[in-house]
Amino acid sequence: MADSEGSRADQSANDRAPNPPQQQAFVPLENNPEVMTALVHKLGLSPSLAFHDVYSIDEPSLLEFVPRPVHALLLVFPVTATYEDSRRTEDDSLPEYTGSGSGEEIIWFRQTIRNACGMIGLLHSACNGGAREMIAPSTDLANLVTDALPLDPAARARLIESSPSIARAHASAAAQGDTVAPAADDNVDLHFVAFVKSAENNLWELDGRRKGPLNRGKLGEEDDVLAEKALDMGVRRFLKRETEGEGNEIRFCLVALAPSMD
After folding, report:
1. What is the pTM of this model?
2. For this structure, is 253 an active site residue?
3. What is the spatial distance between Cα 116 and Cα 96, in angstroms, rounded to a whole number?
4. Residue 127 known to be catalytic
5. Rounded distance between C-alpha atoms, residue 35 and residue 262, angstroms
6. Which end of the chain has less neighbouring CB within 10 Å, N or C?
C-alpha cells in the first residue's frame, strides 16, 4: 500500500467549483495519526485509544504492529474518475438515508462543510462501534452523540456546522502536523472514508459525501475491522476497484483506531 503520510485531505473532484456564498470551510487535516489522536482526545475519546498507521494489509509481520482490536479504519485515497463513477452508480440505486434515534445501528454524519471529510471520518470512527463506549461522559464528543442521535441527517449536519467545540478542535488540529496547512478554500484531491463494525456485527462504510451509510456485510463475532473478512469486504474491495480502473491509481493510506501503546 502506498504511503500518503503527511498529506492533507478532503476536497473531492465534483466539489471543486468555487464555493457557494457563505459555505463553511475547514482547513484540511493532515493525514497524521498523532494529529488525529490529539483531536479525538481533545473532544473526549478515552486516552486508551489512539490512531495508528497500517503499513500493509497483506503482510502478517507488518499487521502485527497494529494493536487489537481495531475499532475503525480510516482509508485516505485520491478522488479518481473511477471512484466518482462508482460512487454515482451505487448512490443512484439508493434512497436518501433518514435514520435517527436510539435504534439506529450506526450514527452517520452528512458532510456539508468544505474540506471537513477528515473531521467527519474521525467522528464516524469515534462515535460508532466499541469506540463509542470509550467516550468520556460530559465531554464535547459525548454531548455531540447525545444531541445528534435523535436528529435526522440534515439536522445533524447543521449541528456540526454550528458547533464551536468541533470548529475549535479542528482548527487546532489543522495547525499541527508535518506539512504547511493549505487555505480552507484550497482544492485538495484526497478524501477520508471510515469502516466500522456495529454491535450487530455488520461492517459499515461511512462517508459523509454519500447518500447514507453503506452496509458491506456480516462479520463474525470475533472479527474486528482489520480481520481478513473485514478487509475483503471493505478496504480490499475498494482497492481492487481502483486498481482495475482507468488510472490504476493506488496512492492510499490506512489508519486504525485501536488501543493506545502508551
Report:
1. 0.89
2. no
3. 21
4. no
5. 15
6. C
